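Q: Predict the assembly, please.
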Amino acid sequence: MADIVAPRTLPGFMELMPREQQLFDRIKGILEETYRSYGFYSLDTPVLEHSDILLAKAGGETEKQIYRFSKGDTDLTMRFDLTVPLAKYVAMHQNELAFPFRRYQIGKVYRGERAQKGRYREFYQADIDVIGDGKLGIINDAEIPSIICDIFGKLGIEGFTIRINNRKVLGGIFEVYGVRDRATDVMRIIDKLDKIGRDSVIEELSGIGMDASMAGELLDFLGLRLGNDGMLAKLGELTGRSAILDEGVGELATLLRYAKLFGVEENHMRIDLTIARGLDYYTGTVYETIIDSHPEIGSVCSGGRYDNLAEYYTTRKLPGVGMSIGLTRLFYVLDANDFIDRSFCSPADLLIIPMTDDVEGAAELSVYFRSRGIRTQVYLEERKFKQKMTYADRLGVPFAAILGEDEIRQGKLSLKDMESGEQVLTDAEDAAGRILAKMGELSGRKILHID
Amino acid sequence: MADIVAPRTLPGFMELMPREQQLFDRIKGILEETYRSYGFYSLDTPVLEHSDILLAKAGGETEKQIYRFSKGDTDLTMRFDLTVPLAKYVAMHQNELAFPFRRYQIGKVYRGERAQKGRYREFYQADIDVIGDGKLGIINDAEIPSIICDIFGKLGIEGFTIRINNRKVLGGIFEVYGVRDRATDVMRIIDKLDKIGRDSVIEELSGIGMDASMAGELLDFLGLRLGNDGMLAKLGELTGRSAILDEGVGELATLLRYAKLFGVEENHMRIDLTIARGLDYYTGTVYETIIDSHPEIGSVCSGGRYDNLAEYYTTRKLPGVGMSIGLTRLFYVLDANDFIDRSFCSPADLLIIPMTDDVEGAAELSVYFRSRGIRTQVYLEERKFKQKMTYADRLGVPFAAILGEDEIRQGKLSLKDMESGEQVLTDAEDAAGRILAKMGELSGRKILHID
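A: Predicted assembly structure:
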C-alpha cells in the first residue's frame, strides 16, 4: 500500500463543498449571462504570462504579492488581475480588433497576500471593459450602471446604490480650493475620513499647507448629500472657475441622463464626491456599489474610466471604461451572511430510484426525462431503500421517481415531491409536466435574499 | 511616456481571437450542459496545490513536466490534471460527501512540455467521474458512453465510434496465452503495432519469451473485428479458462446491454481488444472515442474504470469510472480542420446603430430588446455611417437596427438582415419577432460540420 499523504488545500484558496459550488456557479452564471446580453465578447487569457509583461507597470507592493518563478530560461508570473492581460491582448491585436472592443472575462487571479478570513490568494474577478480607439464616447460610461443594475436585479438584491463620481470633478474642486498640485496627497488624506475622523483629516491637510478653515470647507463640500439634481446644481455654482471641473460636471450630467434611458432607476445612482478609486489609474467617471443594508461589506462592484489602457505596450491611445466584481469575496460574504437561497443546491432535478435489481426501466426513463430538459440522475447502486432515500435527501433533489415491481408492471412510476413529501403514482409524461412546473417556479425565484 | 514592452503571449498557451473564443465557449458550454443534464455536481479546485499532494503518485516523467516553485516556505505545484485534485478532494471530504459522488470539472491544467503545434502547456480538460464508497455498480460504466453520445450529437458529430475494452478481459486473455506475469510488457509491445508493424511486434514478443506462433495467434485474437455480438461470442469460447476473463467478459456484456438502454446506438460502440489506456491506472472498462472520418486525430474522449481513486490520501477504497475530453487540443484540431460553423461567432444578436447625435431612442430600444432575450449592443461612437456598418460586419452580427431621423420621427427602426442584406422599416416588436425567429433557427444548427 502507498504511503498516505494527508489531503489538504492551500490556505487562502477557496474550495467549496458541492452544494456551495452549485450556488457559486449560479451566481457566476448570472454575471456571465448579463455580460453577454450586452454583446460583450468573452476573453480567456492565460493564467501565466511573461513577468516583464505583467510587471511593466507594477510597483513595489504588487511585486511583493505576486507568484513569480522561473521555468528553464523563462521568467513567469501568475496574473494578479485581468486588466493587465487585457492591455497586453489589445495592444498585441490592435490591428485585428474591431473598436470599440467590448469584452468580459471571468477568471481566477493570484495574490500571495497574508491569508486571513475572507481574503483569498486565488480568487475570481468578473470584469467588463469597453475599449475605444483614440476616443470613446461618454455614453459608454452610462451603460455600465445599467449592467450593474441588471446583475443585481437578477441576483435578487433590491437595495443597492451605485456611488458615482468623476475624477475631473474632483481635480476641478481641488483646483478651485487651490490644492490641485497636491491632489494625490489631498485625496489620500480625505480617504481616511471614516477611519481617523474629521478633525484629524483637517490637521493632516494643514500639514500639507492647506488652510484649516479651507480644509473644513472642502470636506463639507465633498461630503454633501443633496441628491443628484441638487449635487449637479451645487457643482454648477462653480461653473467657470475650472475648465476641468466644467468638463467633469458635463460628463456626470450626461452619464446620469443616459443611465436613466438605459433603464437605471434614479434611486440606484448617487453622486458621491468622496469616491476616488485608486489615484493613478482612473481619469474620469468612477463607480462603487454598496448594498444599502450592509455598507460594512464595502464596494462589491467598482470601476471607472481610464485614458490609456495599454500605454506600457503600445503608443496607440486606447481609452476605456469598465468595472469589476470580486466574485470570490462577494460569494464568501453572501454565504457567511446566509443570504443565499439553498433551493439552488441540487445537481439534479430528478433522481430515479430503481427498487428492483433490474434498472432497465430506470435507464430508459432517464433518457426520456433528459430529453425533456430535466437534469436526471439514476441511482445505480444496490442499497437498501432507506439508504437510497437518504441519498436523495443529501443531494437535495426536488423530485425522486421510485420504480418498484408494481410501478414497472403498470408502466408507471411513483413521483415523490421531496419537499412536501407528497407521492403520486403516474406516468412519465405527467411526471415530466410536474417537474417542469416546479423548475419553472424555481427559475422565477431569486438566489439572494438580503434583509 | 512609459517604456514600451513588446506585448506577447507565452508559447504553448492558447489565447484566442474574440470570434474563435465565442466558438470555443459554445463547445465548452455544450459539454457543461450535457454533464449537468446527468446530474453531476461541478467542482472547481485550485490551480495551485501543495507539491507533496500533487506529486504523491507522480513518477519521473510527470515531475519533469510540472510547474513547481516555492513561495515563502511553501512548495507549490500547478495542477497537471484534474484527477489528482479530485482524489485529494474526495479523500479530504469523504465523511461529508454523499456517495456515489458524481462530479464534473472543466478547468485548465499545466504541463511544461516542449511547445509544438497543437501541443499546449496550459489546456482545458473536461472530466466527469463517478466515485463509489467501497464499491460501484458496473452499470455506471454503461452511462459514460451515453454521455459521450449526447455530447457528440449536440456538437454535430455523427460519425464517431467509442472503442471499448476491459482490462480484466485483456488480463484474462494474457492468462490464457500464458503471459499474464508479463502483461505490462506484452501490452507495451502490442501498443506499437500501428507504428512498427506485425512482424516486429512478434519479434519483440519473442524477445520476452513468448513463442512466435503463439504471439501471432494472440495478435490475431486481439485484432478481431467481429461486431459486438461476434466478439462476445468469440470471448465466450474461452469461458472457464480464466476467472478474471470471465468476470471481464461479463462486465463488457452488461455494459453493452445497458448502454443501449441509456440510448447509445449500436454503431457508436465497438469492442476493440487493442485498447488499453495506460497500464497502471485503469482496472476494468476502458474507452476511447474516434471520429470515424479522421482517425488520425486520435482519441478525443477517453476514460475508464479504476479500483482506487485516492489510495495516496486515504485507506478507504474509492472505486470510480470516468472520462476526460482534452478540450483545448480538440478545439485546436476542429478549428485547424475548418470543422466549426462560423455563424456562432457573433457576441451579439443585434447591433443598434443610431444615425443622429442623440442616442436616446437607441438606449431605450436596447433595454426592450434585451428584455426579450436578445443580446443587444448599441453603437455609441460618433463615426461615419460606413464605419458603423463596417463594425457590424466585423462583429458578424446577424441583425443591425438603424435609427435615423426618419425612423425616430415615425417611432420605427430599419432592421437589416446582415446575411441577406434585406432591410425593412418596422416597429420594435416586429423586429424582435424576426430576430428571435432567426435565433431559433440558429440554435437548431449544429456547431460542427465534419465531412
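Residues 158-303 of chain A form a domain with the BirA Bifunctional Protein; domain 2 fold (CATH 3.30.930.10). The longest helix of chain A spans residues 18-37.
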